[in-house]
Each structure stands twice: as structure tokens, then as C-alpha cells.
Inverse folding.
């Protein structure tokens, strides 16, 4: 890695205005099982989640840098989130910071650092399922404050009724510590309905530790023997593109089978006997 005047304050400038940084890396499919075993991650010690996304069939929100999602966490609280990326922290109104689950963080990978603003709120249990089943409108999982945040950040009103439910995606999540890594590690295994898997490992650190955390985490992955995922993409895009494609496929309707009147059918059976 190059060092010198060209790299001075490069990371500091990239994270300016953010409170924290989340550094993420995906693990190539052929190394998934080995990585899970190396970290001691099994179905016995995971947190099970079901994740639903809301977007147009052509993924207009994702294309505009907006993610709207809801999560059912088995045995725990459920929530919904509205997220924008990239953002300029100086242009995000301070009024949103009064909410406990509002944050401005840097999403970092081996390829880029992007500032994101997200606003999460709790959702009553049972509500997300009812929305997914079409019994209630999508707006039911978002609070009035989240809708205002969405409108303010997007610069226009978003018609939630025009969105489709994409998912659910089943996710297993673990939080572990490893003596070779000074930051707690979060691992998530996402599985689509076609049984395709994606594993993402990440750490979070204060923004002031960003440069050290990026270098340290990548060194930890190298120590584990994890190859760089040349096809790395965000979990969100990987999931949304699959479910959007599914929406786009025409449904094949089976021709109705003509049923004979019961009396006629019984007569035919009697003659055949």
C-alpha cells in the first residue's frame, strides 16, 4: 500500500462527520463452511432473522441510494429501517439525531468508503407478517417520523403503497470475539429461497479508529486465510436483484381441469365396472 503525502488524512477525510465506521467483507462461497467452523458459528448459537425489503419492481429506491426494510428477529424485538447512502453529514438535519436509533456511519469495504444515514424504529410483533401477507399496508411498519425522514432526504414524497414486498430472506447472525482481532466480529449468513448463500463478516469501530480498523481487519482476514471476494457486492443488492427478478417473471397459470358432475362421474364408473 502506498504511503506518503498522497495518503495523508485520506481516511480521516472520508469519515468526517460520521460517528462510527462499519468495515465489511464477504467470504467466497467455497470458503463459507470453513470460515464458519473457524469462528465456531453454528445453528445452536445464532440469532435467527427474517428480512423484508420494500422497493418498486424495477428497484427505483435502490437506484436512488435508498433502502427500506423490516426485520423479524426470532425471540427478540422487531424493527424497520430507512437508509440513505451516500450522504453528506453536513446536509443531514440535526433534528434526526434526537432519535436513539438514528445514526450516520461509514460503510467500508476493501473497495470503497461510503457515508450512510439510517433511521430505525421498533415494530410491534406480528405486524411485519401481516404486511407481508397483504393484510396491512407497507406504511404500517414505518413511523410518521421515518416517513418524514424519507421525504426530507429524498426531496419528494415516496408513495409506500406503490412498493412491493421483496423477501423474506432468512439470516443467521452471530457476534463473536477472536483473540486475533481486537474488535468484536459480527458474521451474517443470508440465504435466499433458491438456497444461494452469502456470508458477510464485519466490525464496528469509532470513526477516529477508522484507518487502523480497516487495516487491522483486513490483516485479520488474511491471517484466517480468507480469499478476497472478487465478486463482492452488498447483501442488500444481492437479495433485492433476486427478488425483483422473481417479480418480473410472468406467472404460469395452469389450465383449469374440467370437473364432471358427481352424478355423471358415478354413472360412468358404474358402466366401466
Amino acid at each position: 500500500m502506498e504511503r506518503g503525502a498522497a495518503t495523508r488524512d485520506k481516511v480521516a477525510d472520508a469519515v468526517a462527520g460520521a460517528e462510527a465506521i462499519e468495515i465489511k467483507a464477504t467470504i467466497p462461497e467455497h470458503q463459507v463452511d470453513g470460515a464458519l467452523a473457524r469462528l465456531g458459528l453454528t445453528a445452536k448459537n445464532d440469532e435467527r432473522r427474517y428480512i423484508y425489503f420494500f422497493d418498486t419492481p424495477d428497484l427505483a429506491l435502490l437506484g436512488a441510494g435508498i433502502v427500506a426494510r423490516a426485520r423479524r428477529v426470532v425471540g427478540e424485538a422487531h424493527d424497520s429501517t430507512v437508509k440513505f447512502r451516500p450522504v453528506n453529514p453536513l446536509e443531514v438535519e440535526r433534528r434526526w439525531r434526537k432519535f436513539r436509533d438514528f445514526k450516520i456511519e461509514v460503510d467500508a469495504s476493501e473497495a470503497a468508503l461510503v457515508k450512510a444515514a439510517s433511521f430505525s424504529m421498533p415494530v410491534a410483533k406480528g405486524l411485519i407478517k401481516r404486511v407481508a401477507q397483504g393484510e396491512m399496508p407497507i406504511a404500517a411498519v414505518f413511523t410518521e417520523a421515518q416517513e418524514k425522514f424519507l421525504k426530507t432526504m429524498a426531496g419528494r414524497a415516496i408513495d409506500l403503497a406503490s412498493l412491493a414486498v421483496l423477501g423474506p430472506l432468512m439470516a443467521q447472525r452471530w457476534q463473536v470475539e477472536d483473540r486475533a482481532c481486537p474488535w468484536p466480529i459480527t458474521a451474517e449468513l443470508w440465504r435466499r429461497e433458491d438456497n444461494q448463500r452469502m456470508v458477510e463478516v464485519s466490525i464496528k469501530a469509532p470513526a477516529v479508529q477508522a484507518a487502523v480498523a480497516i487495516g487491522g481487519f483486513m490483516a485479520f482476514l488474511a491471517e484466517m486465510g480468507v480469499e478476497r471476494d472478487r465478486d463482492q457486492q452488498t447483501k442488500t443488492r444481492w437479495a433485492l436483484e433476486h427478488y425483483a427478478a422473481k417479480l418480473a417473471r410472468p406467472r404460469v397459470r395452469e389450465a383449469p381441469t374440467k370437473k364432471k358432475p358427481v352424478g355423471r362421474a358415478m354413472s360412468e364408473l358404474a358402466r366401466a365396472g
Observations:
- The chain has one domain: 10-248.
- The two ends are 86 Å apart (CA to CA).
